[in-house]
Amino acid sequence: MPRSPFSPAFWRSPLRGPWFTSLLGLVLLGGITVLFVTGLLSYAAYNPDLSPVNDKTPGKGLLGFYLFAWPTDPHWLYRLTQGVHVTLGITLIPVLLAKLWSVVPKLFTLPPARSLAHALERLSLLLLVGGGLFEFVTGVLNVQLDYIFPGSFYALHFYGAWVFFAAFVAHAVLKTPLALRNLRELRGASGPAELRGEKDELTSPNPAPPTVSRRGAVGLVGGGSLLLFGTTVGRSFDGLRWSAVLAPHGGAEPGNGPGDFQINKTAAYAGISETETSEEAWRLVVRGRGGTVRLSRAELLRLPLHSAALPIACVEGWATSDQLWRGARLRDLAALVGHDDPTDVFVESLQRHGAFRHAALRANQVGDPRSLLALFVGGAELTPDHGHPARIIVPAAPGVLNTKWVGRLTFGDL
């Protein structure tokens, strides 16, 4: 029996072949396309063209051609797009691993390159496999471990996605017609005995005795994906968080009080002290073309206050249920400093540690009547971990742009 993976006879599983590989490939064709699109939407939601503080991917150049002003309607938009992105990515892991297993003999084909065209095909395969593993591994690590790539995840994931998807598109153009033909010709053939006539470079010349049918293998892969889906998807939906037992920020809410819902960054982590956020010490500085005003919390409470039911939706795929926030409208604060029409705003936090200590919002976000400098949530004052004494809440914005512990707002063109 050959001991070298470079020998075709080394790979003896009777499961490998056109039917199994084609089926997995078509599933990934649809799934990865959705992942790529929702990933680009997530990047657009950060408004990276608005201000350098929002842009974690400098020098993107032509790759930013699709960017647009992120809308505020529907208010659950980012909750949906990023929930789909993260949940689908996790769900596809068994499919991706099975697909890689099914084609691994190709990585050991000799000679490495029979011609220039074959060399280019092998190179594209390396980019496809390497890029796929890189995107899935970095995405899962960031979701599971929170900011494991501080300051660099966005650039790594963004550029990696373009390299991977370019190789993926080239591969799909070449292989999709063949995959569809394989599934049509081999329809109904589920086990090795029925597939003795199925031959290609992945089919073992000396297959081992079968231990599972190909449909059984598909069921195993599908069952793994279904398990990951069922233990992850609930963190994006009201009433189902308890089911997301394998997801960060999944499981039951930490409590049932007005401020007892999920957070990502605590006051202690951000370096916020009770002294600087006390009634006596804290002042909100608001700047604009009409000058500067400084407002205490008591003065903010004398302004017209409004309420909005909005969720917090995180890039990691989790979201809170709609919480009832109450505070001053951002467009009213802009009017205090001479901006009667909505304009962009630069938001500065008191936090000392962690990313997104500053953020920028577009004029359409400032102008939405649900966009607030929130002082209350659930009928009670904000807790320190939820941004006391004041935080931003904007419909459909990524959670990191809903800045906590706000100290300064600067309205005007950024």
TrEMBL record:
It comes from the Bacteria. The keyword Transmembrane helix applies. This is DMSO/TMAO reductase YedYZ molybdopterin-dependent catalytic subunit. Keywords: Membrane, Transmembrane, Transmembrane helix. Residues 277-411 form the Oxidoreductase molybdopterin-binding domain. CDD domains: SO_family_Moco. It comes from Streptomyces pseudovenezuelae. Residues 194-215 are annotated as: Disordered. The chain crosses the membrane at residues 20-46, 83-102, 123-141, 153-174. Coiled coil: none annotated.
